[in-house]
């Protein structure tokens, strides 16, 4: 709770409460739970919650009495998506990867149960469909970078996501067993690989990157299956590693 700035203790506590609500948005938090997690007494926790509720950044579920993020928090997050802070940090590396490989490079972030494509950097040999994917939403695990993101989640959380979105997963041909197998393979390899997972005739490799202490994104490279031989795949992975480790990039592998 110590912000390091004199007189900023109360704002720091408010931010801490907001972050806890974000981290427990789906199940929600009771006041007592929030107070315990934040290291606050119940009265202080309730007062901070009421500030967030009155401003629209938090909302109380009438059925359960638990608190979650409110509509204003959603709109604030959506506003940030028009110029994502991570974009400026990742684009130089993505441009170099696209130039060195000649392939399409994707930046993916998680939004709830889904993965959102923030940006596509097109190389010299792109698949036409790949250049149209910026702004698209796909299921976690559907697509190479999305699979890299899914592999960072705890098994229990991944199971809960699948149960909530089972009809969407089944419609896309991804059973729960298949998702589990893909995630297990990704963790073992320490990078994601996919063939025809999102686009027919496409092969991709990708890695998760740490954005902040509790948040990750993913970068992937995809091209025509005929171009991605085993030897070429290893070369692409080396390029990914080299560019992410460049001091000027300031990106860290998950």
Name a few traits of the molecule.
2 domains; elongated; about 250 residues; 7-stranded antiparallel beta sheet; Arc Repressor Mutant, subunit A; 9 strands; two-stranded antiparallel ribbon; alpha+beta; disordered N terminus; Beta-Lactamase
Shape: elongated
* Share of β-strand residues: 15-25%
Low-confidence stretches: 1-8
- Determine the fraction of residues in helical runs and give it as a percent range: 40-55%
**CATH class label of the largest domain:** Alpha Beta
- Write down the overall mean pLDDT: 87
- C-alpha Rg, in Å? 20 Å
Report the total helices: 10
CATH-level-2 architecture of the largest domain: 2-Layer Sandwich
CATH fold-level assignment of the largest domain? Beta-Lactamase
Structure description:
With 254 residues, the protein is an alpha+beta fold. The protein folds into two domains: 9-78, Arc Repressor Mutant, subunit A; 81-253, Beta-Lactamase, CATH 3.30.450.40. Helix content is 46%, strand content 20%. It has ten helices and nine strands. The protein has helices spanning 9-23, 31-38, 42-54, 71-80, 85-101, 144-150, 155-164, 166-171, 176-189, 230-245, and strands at 58-60, 67-69, 104-111, 114-121, 137-139, 192-195, 202-212, 215-224, 252-253. The strands form two sheets. Strands 3, 4, 5, 6, 7, 8 and 9 form a seven-stranded antiparallel beta sheet that branches. A two-stranded antiparallel ribbon has the order 1-2. Strand 6 and strand 7 (202-212) form a beta hairpin. Helix 1 (9-23) crosses helix 3 and helix 2 (31-38) crosses helix 3 (42-54). The two termini are 26 Å apart. The model is unreliable at 1-8 (pLDDT under 50).
């Amino acid at each position: 709770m110590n912000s390091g700035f004199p007189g900023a203790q109360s704002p720091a506590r408010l931010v801490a409460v907001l972050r806890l609500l974000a981290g427990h948005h789906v199940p929600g938090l009771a006041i007592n739970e929030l107070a315990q997690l934040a290291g606050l007494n119940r009265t202080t926790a309730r007062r901070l919650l009421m500030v967030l509720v009155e401003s629209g950044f938090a909302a109380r579920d009438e059925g359960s009495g638990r608190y979650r993020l409110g509509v204003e928090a959603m709109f604030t997050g959506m506003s940030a998506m028009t110029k994502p802070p991570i974009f400026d940090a990742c684009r130089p590396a993505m441009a170099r990867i696209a130039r060195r490989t000649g392939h399409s490079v994707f930046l993916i972030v998680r939004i709830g149960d889904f993965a959102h494509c923030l940006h596509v950097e097109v190389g010299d040999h792109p698949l036409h469909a790949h250049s149209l994917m910026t702004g698209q939403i796909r299921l976690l695990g559907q697509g190479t970078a999305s699979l890299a993101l899914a592999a960072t989640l705890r098994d229990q959380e991944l199971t809960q996501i699948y149960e909530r979105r089972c009809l969407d997963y089944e419609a896309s041909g991804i059973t729960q067993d298949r998702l589990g197998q893909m995630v297990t393979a990704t963790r073992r390899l320490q990078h994601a690989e996919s063939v025809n997972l999102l686009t027919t005739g496409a092969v991709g490799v990708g890695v998760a990157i740490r954005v902040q202490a509790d948040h990750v994104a993913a970068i992937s490279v995809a091209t025509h299956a005929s171009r991605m031989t085993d030897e070429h795949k290893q070369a692409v992975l080396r390029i990914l590693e080299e560019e992410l480790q460049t001091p000027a990039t300031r990106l860290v592998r998950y």
